[in-house]
């Protein structure tokens, strides 16, 4: 017996066909991935299986779930009884799927009571105990406290665990997961994927996993179906599709993913990928030493001259004379770190009114009557030299 069989599924609006000719199967306990770009029809296919399409869309074809035949022809009242007990769905964003005004435990218990034949207070008490047990099973650290919390008081990963608990509360034959880990960070995503795989394997639940992330498919699924423009263009085992894709669209998906060919082969067999070889060093001279300060484009390129530039405001007298002589010859003048547009600007020191001459202020103690003030450092972007002066004030 198969958990899901879809034959010639089509989804249409009044004037447009969105999904056409989709046929797929999911065996009992089998994990099948459905991949494709955004807008390819993946979510419409999933919503058709559960009879949750909007009113402006119509679905035709055949959908059988665990012995229940032709779900598309069933009335809404019958479909409501089948959802949650025969087939369940995990949605992409739990904050829109959970009721923000109802405590988490009450929402999980409601799923249990909807498909329970018990009555009265005993039924409600059993549902509450079952809710706490489910929250424990999905790995929440304090399930009793989580049951009393509201959805906004839980983290994104915890909310997604609550969604998994609700979906598996009545041991359905088929679980449909529509991008369940897209909004999670990488670490939490791996934890949720491992939890989901463990739970469906333990229960023998068929899984239809919808995603655009090829690495996630390789981690969770055994078979993969590739969807483009509302049709299935390629299907097979994860190993076959990842190693030797036949359709051009599948090859483009693999090329656009972050999986290198070596990692594709490792993911196809669920093996640990070997570390990539270090890239060969670029040709040319080695980069400048890390100890050299990087100020300006010249220093970043590692081409700083060994002598101060002609405009360096704190060069030595000897260097100043040499620079003055060299400035008469046609040469390229370099800007220093205190010039406009430089990455480092030199703060002009305060001068006494009695000393109107421009230039750097001598260090503290060089002339009487001046008290030391704050220290500052400036550097020349061309010669990469740094001088630490002290501004003075009268």
UniProtKB/TrEMBL annotation:
SMART domains: AAA. Keywords: ATP-binding, Cell membrane, Membrane, Nucleotide-binding, Transport. Pfam families: ABC_tran (PF00005). GO terms for cellular component: plasma membrane. It is found in: Cell membrane. Residues 252-394 are annotated as: Disordered. SUPFAM superfamilies: P-loop containing nucleoside triphosphate hydrolases. PROSITE patterns: ABC_TRANSPORTER_1, ABC_TRANSPORTER_2. It comes from the Bacteria. Residues 291-329, 362-384 have a biased composition (Low complexity). The keyword Lipid metabolism does not apply. InterPro entries: AAA+_ATPase, ABC_Ni/Peptide_Import, ABC_transporter-like_ATP-bd, ABC_transporter-like_CS, P-loop_NTPase. Residues 4-254 form the ABC transporter domain. Its main location: membrane. GO terms for molecular function: ATP binding; ATP hydrolysis activity. It is a peripheral membrane protein. Residues 276-290 have a biased composition (Pro residues). Belongs to the ABC transporter superfamily. This is ABC transporter ATP-binding protein. It comes from Xylanimonas allomyrinae.
